[in-house]
Design a protein that fits this description.
single chain; 79 residues; mainly alpha; 3 helices; 0% strand
Length: 79
Amino acid sequence: MSYDYPRIHKAEENIEHIVTEWVEEHVMEYFSVEEIESITPDEMEEIIAFREELNEYSPMQIGYSNLINYWESFQEYDD
């Protein structure tokens, strides 16, 4: 029987959740907001620019991508 990691997707989901939580907490503290939706478009541009400077293999990429996607979806919903 060859090596296997049953339910590896659960571990990956947990890692993604933790990283996203870290990013959200840091961003909200930095910009002094209580909700991601309160981030201004100019502030989001700063966040996007920061994410684009990260190494493409950075595990933090997914957290920033999730935060940006959430913010963008709220903006579209709010219009």
